[in-house]
Amino acid sequence: MLKDLKKIQIATMLIFISTVFLNAQVKSTGSISGKVIDTEAKALANVSVTIKGPALLVQLFVATEQDGTFWFPQLPPGKGYTLNIELPGYKTDIRKGFDIKAGKNIFLTITMETSSTGEKVISPAHNPSVNLRTSKTSLNFSKDLIRNIPMSRDLHEIIRSVVSHCISNITPG
């Protein structure tokens, strides 16, 4: 009888562990990443890359790293995403019509051309008041937004709909 109980415990544990691993492998979001270079194939740092789309509640912003790379993780699946790539002294590049699929990453190499206006834009090499490592996006849920969101009115469901959310200082009441 103890052997049968032990076998049941082991089987239950194996089933539990396998479901945890299977759930960990299912991805419900996609991503866009890439590298921004100039016409001489040199990486461009601190390029403003903004993404917006019908599946996002707010547009998201990142600045490219020193090697010119950027990454938008955990984007909800959807069609018609738009990227806006800007750097002073270069032509603004707008890319439209990206379709995000769950579990997939879209990688882009974006070549920026210098602006033909002839203006020189001088920016400091290092600006200590700008933090390029941390980005913060906030969103206030108005009554109209909550009323018109096509989902349940449960607070946790609404918060989970925000991409890359982090809950802090929520007090009931």
Q: Which short descriptors sum up this protein?
A:
173 residues, flat, 4-stranded antiparallel β-sheet, 3 helices, Immunoglobulin-like, CarboxyPept-like_regulatory, Carboxypeptidase regulatory-like domain-containing protein, 3-stranded mixed β-sheet, 7 strands, 2 domains, 21% helix, alpha+beta
What does this structure look like?
This protein is an alpha+beta fold and 173 residues long. It folds into two domains: 30-131, Carboxypeptidase-like, regulatory domain (Immunoglobulin-like); 138-168, no CATH class. It is 21% helix and 29% strand. The strands form two sheets. Strands 3-2-5-6 form a four-stranded antiparallel β-sheet, with no helix packed on it.
Q: How many structural units, i.e. domains?
A: 2
Order of helices and strands: HEEEEEEEHH
Uncertain regions: pLDDT < 50 for 5+ in a row? 118-132
Q: Please state the overall shape, judged from the principal axes of the Cα atoms.
A: flat
Overall structural class, as computed from helix and strand content, comes to alpha+beta
Major pleated sheet? 4 strands, antiparallel
| Number of helices, where a helix is a run of at least 4 consecutive DSSP H or I residues | 3
Radius of gyration: 22 Å
Give the fraction of residues assigned to helices: 10-25%
The CATH topology label of the largest domain is Immunoglobulin-like
CATH class of the largest domain, anyone?
Mainly Beta
The end-to-end span amounts to: 53 Å
Mean pLDDT: 76
Give the total of beta strands.
Answer: 7
CATH-level-4 superfamily name of the largest domain:
Carboxypeptidase-like, regulatory domain
